[in-house]
Amino acid sequence: MTLRRTACAALLAGATLLVTGAAHSTEIFDEDEVALILSHGPWPVKTDPDPSNRMSGKPAAIAYGKILFESNDLSIDRQRSCATCHQEALGFGDGIARGFGIARVDRNTPPLFNMRLNRWFGWDGKSDNLWAQSIAPILDARELGMTPEILKARLVETPNLADGYRDVFGAPLATHDAETAMVNVAKALAAFQETIVSGKSSFDRFRDALAAEDKAGIDAYPDPAKRGLKLFVGKGRCDLCHFGANFTNGEFHDIGMPHFPAPGRVDKGRYGGIQHLRKSRFNLLGPFNDDGLRATAGFTRHVRLTPKNWGEFRVPSLRNAALTAPYMHDGSKDTLADVVNHYSEIPEERLHQDGEKLLRPLHLSDAEKADLVAFLRTL
Ligand code: HEC
Ligand code: HEC
Predict the structure, then answer these.
(1) CATH code for residues 21-44+198-269+311-379
(2) Superfamily (CATH) of domain 59-193
(3) Could you tell me the pLDDT band of residue 15, with boundaries at 50, 70 and 90?
(4) What is the pLDDT of residues 136-187, one digit of tens each?
């Protein structure tokens, strides 16, 4: 009896040690958890050029796209560029709650990493390709405030931009109408943005070590991050939406964030995104898709508008999350700890009312919240 009890106590103590990571921290994950963790890699994901953009992957277009991205000549007042809001040092975001160009916009500026992995672009997925998404800020009166005609005139009068255009597109600007010139500019911008990819994170090194059963590599990953990862794939059920190597299923959900950018003004989220997508001349079903067979347009052809889309926003990738504060489509969460608090105390009535079945309040302890944040910071 005594012996058995001692053995039992030793086992229990052993189990606790494993969980706190003081010994063999590899064993804190069971088989199912290991499989889930491995599903978040390998990284980087190999990608092919974008068939909808004949400039995708072309070095001359990439170089020209970078010049355009950083050029103030793309704004009506010559005061700002794409890089004003998408700053490299801030993970290609801007560090503020909502973007500010000529005026303030309604949404948070997302980082621009790993764009080739996106199916939809923008928080509402209003674009089905990267070049269409790059046209939007050029024309938005609150961002760069241009028209296709002014843009073309601007390029013509700016020698380095006009020469670059001719070299990349094989014809002088004068021979193209303003809309075609704008789409071409957007395709060069897209070719550049596709080259912004994030490197291996501390999580990726851990995942590779786990796949290779490399004990030293596994042990090098901090214990709080391991415990947070266990919550992420387990009790937290985070990876139902933040799925796969890029930590997103690429689709849209309502996680109970507010929908009012200003009193009396509603952000329709995915509902408005689908309406915009269908009307756009720049979608993959339209005349500017370079993929003649339209094989790229399957998702766009089949997208359906339902009342459930109201107030849904795209599941963001969590890679580089430590660099991209503030968070959410409206920038309303300042820190990762605030985000985790939201999931912990999420109001249940609100979710049920909106039909989101994947979420429930997690009621995490302070230690669990700290672990989850520690994990997110390793991405
Ligand atoms: C005023 C600040 C601002 C400027 C200037 C700006 N952006 Fe953005 N960008 C944003 C905001 C805000 C969003 C989110 C838009 C949305 O969801 O409706 C965004 C979204 C994007 C996205 C979608 C990313 C994703 O994950 O879906 C791309 C791509 C992008 N911008 C590229 C550009 C390019 C190229 C330019 C220059 C032509 C540019 N942006 C200029 C603020 C800006
Ligand atoms: C039902 C799908 C779903 C689940 C489950 C889910 N998320 Fe999210 N997550 C989203 C969506 C959608 C957004 C963007 C919401 C918005 O902006 O309105 C988001 C945003 C975030 C952000 C902000 C990222 C940024 O760049 O702004 C973080 C961090 C995050 N989630 C972490 C988690 C964690 C941790 C869990 C588990 C506790 C989790 N998520 C579970 C769908 C989900």
Answers:
(1) 1.10.760.10
(2) Cytochrome c-like domain (1.10.760.10)
(3) very low
(4) 999 999 999 999 999 999 999 999 999 999 999 999 999 999 999 999 999 9
Q: Kindly list the protein residues whose Cβ atom lies closer than 6 A to any atom of ligand 1.
A: 74, 80, 82, 84-86, 99-101, 105, 107, 109-110, 112, 115, 118, 121-124, 130, 133-134, 137-138, 143-144, 189, 193
DSSP states of 83-140:
HHHSBGGGTTB-SSSS-BSSSB-SSPPPP-TTGGG-SSBSTT--BSSHHHHHHHHHH-
**Distance from the alpha carbon of residue 233 to the mean position of ligand 1, in angstroms:** 31
What is the Å distance from ligand 1's center to 276 Cα? 16
**Quick check: 309 and 278 in contact, CB under 8 A?**
no
**Of residues 150, 138, 125, the one with CA closest to residue 188:** 138
**Is the pTM for the entire model greater than 0.85?**
yes
Q: Which atom of ligand 2 is nearest to the CA of 344?
A: 38
DSSP 283-352: STTSTT-S-TT-GGGHHHHH----GGGTT-EE----TTGGGS-SBSTT--B-SHHHHHHHHHH--HHHHH
Which helix (H) or strand (E) segment holds residue 253: the answer is strand 252-253
Q: What is the CA radius of gyration of the chain?
A: 24
- Among 69, 71, 105, 277, the mutation site with the greatest number of ligand 1 atoms within 8 A of its Cβ is 105
CB of 328 sitting under 6 A from ligand 2:
yes
Going from N- to C-terminal start, the domains of the chain cover 21-44+198-269+311-379, 59-193
